[in-house]
């Protein structure tokens, strides 16, 4: 069957786009729509046309997989201009979602109906582009400049009700049956003698809001080019007639198509879907999870429990004693209260969670009926083994035993139980109810259906799960430890921590490494260094300035002072003049001669360290593919999404350039800067990380 069908119901031509899974506007669909409209124009029996989508949504947009390839006619703008120019009225009937090019098709129609629950949006900026098939010209004409700026530069879809309010749609359909609602509306329009009503013929929208929006976007863009370019396209709508405006939109669209940001964001789009596609779980049914246990109700345990409760699961939380259990319940209640005040949960929902779905206590027997338990007690192997022995004794056969350990050897934990196949790592990030990343750490004996269950659970919890193998720090923390060391070396060699933070924020990171240390707490880094001290190499350089801060009790935000000073109520922090002396002492101890570092060198060293360790992690099979590393950094470490992730970034820069940097840095420190064999091999073969995805 063709991707676009045409059938006549009375005088109504029904044009159906049927291109699963999201009715993307592929070349065949564009061609099909054009042919269907030619037939409609020529069909004397048809007085009005309805365009709708088969399956679960209207149209999910242009076919993203065609981006970056040579374009094939007919172009989407031409197809949509053709719809708008029809001499007989056209209705778009929207259900599910109408996104990007899909909404632009609807804007080319003369009347729009949406079913209850439908969402409509122009999310192109999230892919590094702008609506390139008339959206920036027609939407402001239809709903006004201000509302169009909000939808287009923000990229967030709106609900049908809001679309009705702002004039984007004309009617909300009734009932469940899309086709019936569409036919009903089209029949009504026919009876009324409704004429074509092209949006492009509406007057130019108001230019007044543009300047204020530009200023706001300039502040918030953080290096992203698409939102401001989209604003320029809307600005063109306020100054030109539709034909010239469309031409300007096209020009800006084609410009964005060529940018590395477009390639980074589209890499992110496909990679976040690819991470869950694992050969080892293909076709394997996950175990059912309704009720989970959480051991330890501290920072992580309370966050994990809240995340599960907000996702509809029941939670039994076990602490060391009744008092600690009550404290954990208090923490969870506090997070739920915050969710209520932000409008994300209603008061009865909060009440139901606290009275019906959360139990907190100290007796492990309460875990008998749980399907899966996540351990989040102190990061100490003996404590963990003790907890796992208790779990092994009480949990029913088939239940899953997971650990949230950050660094410890999960194979060793698993081997201490009688059921290693049921043991897995579920490594959440702090705050666990907010951070999207979940590393699913697969141990040697972990059964495939346990892995499948972990991925299914992640989906339920709203997390992006990435498979990792067992090693010190798994994917994220292992690579972090390496590039943090590169940053510390730069401080020892003369760079100020503030300069490093600023350079990396300019690069696009949400925070610089020393701001992150202050947020996490300097005691965490200290404990990690202590843990690794026994295995340290004589040539390893110690960041003694960080130890000095720890010993002075400057643990970061929680003590009001770390690398930065945090005045009451301020979480951004200000520079501390004392840091210079503390760092100078560390340099003197090491006997280094401080020198200048510019932003470019800071970024090059930091990124080279990240990419080099990323390559090792891939080569060792800790990450399955480079894209898994990228997703860990996008979702867990504040890496700028528009750069696609460290491995994609490395491809953009050129692996030969990164390798040359590493070799140059090795001239003064060949201990830290040893090129990863995979990186060397790819350069010799002229290949990219993408070739391993
Ligand atoms: N083009 C090509 N493939 C697409 C696609 C698109 N626009 N949208 C989704 N897909 C693919 C996904 O990659 C996935 O493939 P897979 O099964 O092989 O992994 C499959 O369709 C299903 O997608 P999801 O898993 O995301 O399905 P959901 O039901 O969760 O979500 C959706 C559906 C809300 C439509 C979501 O897929 C989405 O947000 N898609 C992107 C929408 C978008 O950004 N549209 C704008 C495109 S750019 C544009 O239109 C330019 C124009 O202005 C000229
Ligand atoms: P925390 O110190 O805030 O909480 C630990 C909790 O476990 C305490 O409330 C303690 O009373 C409880 N506990 C200790 N022994 C117990 C036992 N035998 N039975 C029941 N409860 C017990 O620690 P945090 O930060 O929550 O870390 C927990 C685990 O999560 C650690 O393994 C840590 O490495 C890991 N993790 C921590 C992250 C973080 O950013 N804090 C991020 C990701 C993982």
Concise overview:
The protein has 693 residues and is α/β, with parallel strands linked by helices. The chain is built from 28 helices and 19 strands.
Tell me what the structure shows.
Helix 1 runs parallel beside helix 2, helix 2 (76-84) runs parallel beside helix 3 and helix 12 (299-310) crosses helix 13. The protein is α/β, with parallel strands linked by helices and 693 residues long. Helix 16 (410-415) links the parallel strand 14 (400-403) and strand 15 (423-428). The strands form four sheets. An eight-stranded mixed beta sheet has the order 12-11-10-13-14-15-16-17, with helices on both faces. A six-stranded mixed beta sheet has the order 1-2-3-4-6-9, with helices on both faces. A three-stranded mixed beta sheet has the order 5-7-8. The chain is built from 28 helices and 19 strands. It folds into three domains: 4-258, 2-enoyl-CoA Hydratase, Chain A, domain 1; 283-468, NAD(P)-binding Rossmann-like Domain (Rossmann fold), CATH 3.40.50; 476-692, N-(1-d-carboxylethyl)-l-norvaline Dehydrogenase, domain 2 (Orthogonal Bundle). The structure holds 3-hydroxybutanoyl-coenzyme A and 1,4-dihydronicotinamide adenine dinucleotide. Residues 295-301, 318-320, 324, 376-379, 383, 387, 404-406, 428-430 line the site of 1,4-dihydronicotinamide adenine dinucleotide.
